[in-house]
Design brief:
The protein has one helix at residues 73-76; strands at residues 9-12, 24-31, 42-47, 52-56, 60-62. With 81 residues, it is mainly beta. The chain has a five-stranded antiparallel beta sheet, with no helix packed on it. β3 (42-47) and β4 form a beta hairpin.
């Protein structure tokens, strides 16, 4: 059983988080560990900086509502005047 579903908003946690400061992500693919070790489930994520990366379950946490939402392509465009 996986902790996060495709589309879940997450953040990077633990010691690896120092390499991803203030980055939130959306789960885009999930691979359950074949031996059933949930902490070794793998998640492909789209990071808020536009990059993609893969993390184990123990490297991710739920994004809280107080954290900034992910920027979309439309939110990066200049506002209309």
């Amino acid at each position: 059983m996986v902790r996060f579903d495709i589309g879940s908003r997450v953040r990077v946690v633990g010691s690896i988080a120092e390499h991803y400061p203030a980055v939130t992500a959306v789960i885009i693919d999930v691979s359950s560990h074949p031996g059933g070790l949930a902490h070794l489930n793998r998640y492909r994520v789209c990071l808020s900086d536009g990059n993609e990366d893969t993390f184990y379950e123990f490297q991710l946490g739920r994004r809280t509502d107080s954290e900034p939402a992910l920027r979309t392509a439309s939110s990066r465009e200049a506002p209309a005047r």
